[in-house]
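Supplementary notes for students who missed Thursday's class. We covered one full example, reproduced here. Read the sequence, then the structure, then the short commentary at the end.
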Amino acid sequence: MRIITRVFDLARKCGYTSDRELADAMDVSDGQITRVRNGQRRVHQDFILGALRAFPSKTFDDLFEIVADEPGVATTAA
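Structure (token representation):
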């Protein structure tokens, strides 16, 4: 299972102009934002909670999509 984020698309639409501004609103480091954006880190609990904090009118389903892994495909945790 993996979680796909819609946070970055929504951030632009909601007026966040930089990763730093989004990170501040989410109460996470801008490094975490960069790593998730670049695929160097998977979406994790702090990122999810921060996104819900930064977008209080949005639900989990508005911000994220859970995708099942294909059978037989190995995944690694980041």
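Commentary. Residues 2-57 form one domain. The radius of gyration is 13 Å. If anything here is unclear, bring it to office hours.
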